[in-house]
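User: Sequence in, structure out. Go.
Assistant: Echoing your sequence, followed by the structure tokens.
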Amino acid sequence: MGSPGKKQFPLRLDPALWEEIERLAAIELRSSNAQIELLLREALKRRGIKPALSPAPRRGRPPVAGSEGNEGEGGFVGDAPEEADEYPGRHPRH
């Protein structure tokens, strides 16, 4: 159940090293995987190598098809309709 777009591979580590990574990850409120990635990036940076960051995944509700860029116009799934009579007992939005 890896993240989409991330390279997956088996990694064999010394159990004592793994325990320290897990301990450090818990202290810094990260997953063990995120901790390993951070440690690898820090090691590369010390060697003068700066890998490009992947774009962050989009968060939140997906837009309704055909309404890309209309976030302020009620273009999201689950937005209340403009007319209150579609949902009896609800007040119209102002």
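User: And one key feature?
Assistant: Residues 15-46 form one domain.
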